[in-house]
Amino acid sequence: MSETFQHGELKLEVKDTTVTLTGRSTARDPGNFIGPILTNLYKQASAAGKAMILDFRKLDYMNSSTITPVIRLLHEAKKSGGKVTITYDGKSRWQDLSFSALTIFATEDKRIEIRGE
Amino acid sequence: MSISEVPKAPLRGEVIHEGRRHPFEVLGARRSALEVRFTNGTLPVDRMEVEGAEVTLIADPIAIGRCRVEGHRGVGDVAMAHIIPTETPLRCDDLYKRRLVVRLDQGFDQTALLQRRKAEIRPEFRAYTADLVYDLAIYRQLFDEIDASLANEKPETAALVRDSVRAKQGRAFLRFFDERLAQLETMVAGFTRAEHERHGFYFRRNVWGNILTSAFLARTNIRPRGYAGDSMMMQQLYDNSYQGDSLFGQLMHKHPIETAAAQAVRNRRKLLVDLIEAAYRDRPDPSRALRILSVACGPAWEVRDLFTRAEDAARFSCTLLDQDEEALGEAEHHIHLVGTRLEAPVQAKYLRDSVRTMLMSKDIVAQFGKHDFIYSMGLFDYLTAPVARSVLTRLYELLEPGGRMVIGNFHVENPTRTYMEYWMDWVLLYRHEDDFQALGRELPGATFEIYREETRSQMFLDVRKPRG
Amino acid sequence: MTNRTLSLDVDPVWESIDRVRRENEVFLRTHQIPQPSIEALSMVTCELMENAVKYGFFEGDVKTIQSRCSVESDSVVLEVRSPVKPGDDAAMARLDHMIQWIRGYQDPFQAYLMRLREVSSQAMGTSESGLGLVRIAYEGQSVLDFFVDSGSVLNISALHAVEGAR
User: Fold this and answer.
1) Which end of chain A is more exposed for a tag (fewer CB within 10 A), N or C?
2) Would you list the domain boundaries of chain B?
């Protein structure tokens, strides 16, 4: 069972506790669209004791405002003991630059993991 | 764009002690403590830990964990206290001033990421750096041994010995440093900008201990005033002496201020005095003082050099503009001292403004006045072409007919460039003669020449405005 | 030189951002700018244009945003001009401070990490991330600068050294 959310050129596909982002995230305030979806899924995943997975590999572009809700989620997960994994395309230059820096939120026990693939 | 206003509403919170909540208002902060007043008029505890505290930044309260409450001693208001977060030490000044919850140890989150960055460093560069660090350590130990052996010596005797060591082994060390720099230049010659950035970062982490021994290198890296080239650095460049507590530190300090770029800074100071004197002789209106404008003036040493006799006070009238209040204050203080020494007050005006925003003035002439000689050194090295063009055009408006304007910029061939970027973390926007040509051509009616000083590091655009 | 500069004058609406990005991309491709630089400059275009649309003051004489993309011998300069509220010196002082802070690092990666940490520290509800400008320096490999002209128009520029140039 999967659910798809669309906002402009950005598509979020939610399946189990995985969110896959595709297209381009260029909205004025993407947090309004992405934030609630991530927060809800994070709560569900935490309640089920599962890791929430954010898959950016198929994302073509995102503006800097898109990073904010992701950082906030990672910060929240780190504080509250939740599990979040971010996967990105390590061969894509922009993805590597943007997402590898998020490693500062990673935890040693891999509760929070940032993976370039 | 982070240009939002700092919230002005009072910062409030609550301390939780034995299940009860005690509201407080934050009145100020030090690095690791909040200065608060408990709004119900009494302290919940004194010199004790409480189980928790919360602060409300914008919407929901944010828990800051266990804290210690320490009542103010000898203060009339008994409800005043310091709250020190102990469970998770915080940067309380940031919490108060910027409404940010920043852990004091947050930098440690970057450890793994920064350690992994070395994978992106070219193997030959890693080998070069490792060898350099080793060789510097050898020298350091040898110089430190001499320092140690002189510890109980008479100061005059120790000073003589140190002079001798600096003259022989010290000079040999400086030559060794030169050779290693030449190798570094060859190695990074083909790097892209991104590679320079990555390798520069890696390099400085490795030689950080050596950087800190040098008063000059430490300052260019740490930048206590937020930018490189502050008045203290200028002072060090002009002094060009051995500074520091240890022989090794003195040599590490002396080496960067003996470079071509450093000499160019000293050269331009003298050149400016000569140019201003020439402008005085050639002044458009001999009935009055020559009006000078220095843009991004810094401590304005050259202005002090200009006044050597009492009659000079009547020859020149200066307007000094800078964004840095401290540098401007320093210029004012020293120029005032010059006036006192000569028993003739110097005519000087001090303006604090940014060149990037001064251009928004609708009537720039009314605001800044007209001048016979305008100069700016150490500013255009930071301006991109569109900004440089605009600043230059507006400054030209401030030039009297028959006036002269001199702009300095480090040349792309600055032989100290790699040294500055890798060791000093000092990146400039370098220009070529063609760039200055293009800038000069946009000034209506102007004639100009472009030249370099003796070391050929620093280039000057020397503009003349036609007489009316 | 005119054929090496693309100037666009667009309405301050969100849709203009993508239009300017696409036109700049085509222009840069025409001038054989390497693909990694085109990608970086596309991002820079979007971030600068977003700021102009978001924070521009279009109630005065100037009602549009001007974008210029200039190809130099070893660099590309992007400029975005948008009006600011006259007299809002405090906002310009903060922008000045921010840009000088970013440019204080040889490696803008350091500035980017600092900013990420600060964003995570900000209370929920703060919409501005402040990451856009830092990202221009770090991911966009560009040197930022700005000035405000006498018509209260902010000209913010990004100088990008084309791959291979220092």
Assistant:
1) N
2) 12-104, 114-258, 261-464
pLDDT, average across residues B93-121: 86
CATH 1.10.10.10 holds for B261-464: no
Q: Does A100 reach chain B within 8 Å, measured CB to CB?
A: yes
Average pLDDT over residues B417-434: 96
Cβ pairs bridging B and C (under 8 Å): 147
The 10s digit of each residue's pLDDT in C110-158 is 899 888 887 776 654 455 567 899 999 999 999 999 999 988 999 999 9
Residue C79 near chain B (CB below 8 Å): yes
CB pairs under 8 A between A and C: 63
* Residue A28 domain boundaries: 2-116
Lookup: tokens for B270? 């003298």
CA distance A15 to A22: 14
Q: What is the DSSP string of C34-52?
A: -HHHHHHHHHHHHHHHHHH
**Which of B229-233, B243-247, B380-384 comes out lowest in average pLDDT?**
B229-233
Structurally, how many domains does chain A consist of?
A: 1
Confidence of residue B4 (pLDDT cuts 50, 70, 90): very low
The enclosing H or E element of B306 equals: helix B301-306
**Nearest 5°: phi and psi at B274?**
-60, -40
Residue pointed to by tokens 């040898």? B142
**Does domain C2-161 correspond to CATH entry 3.30.565.10?**
yes
Q: How many CB atoms lie within 10 A of CB B172?
A: 11
Closest CB to C147: pick one of B94, B198, B356: B356
